[in-house]
Design brief:
- This protein has one domain: Orthogonal Bundle (434 Repressor (Amino-terminal Domain)), CATH 1.10.260.
- The longest helix is centred in the first third of the chain and has 19 residues.
- By secondary structure, the protein is mainly α.
- It is globular, with a radius of gyration of 13 Å.
- The protein is built from five helices and no strands.
């Protein structure tokens, strides 16, 4: 059976999660530390990774305090495209 094309929503979700995970590894920020920063439990953070549409813009601003997103990364998240 042929593989279906990735939907725009799936692509946006993949870009958001991959950008967060990339910066977590770059700046050595654990899931527990990120959850604490957002004032949520680790399990809630994992649910948001599974469904990134649950992240709010405020969450991104909070994460930026420790993950230091670049302008290019923010633009990629907003456009739903990987700009690397």
């Amino acid at each position: 059976m042929p593989r279906l094309a990735v939907s725009a929503n799936e692509e946006r979700n993949k870009v958001l999660v991959s950008t967060i995970k990339y910066n977590q590894s770059l700046y050595d920020v654990s899931d527990e530390a990120l959850a604490k920063l957002l004032n949520i439990s680790r399990s809630t953070l994992m649910k948001r990774f599974d469904d990134p549409s649950l992240f709010s813009f405020g969450d991104l601003w909070q994460m930026n305090r420790v993950l230091y997103f670049t302008q290019r990364q923010f633009l990629g998240i907003a456009q739903g495209k990987n700009l690397f």
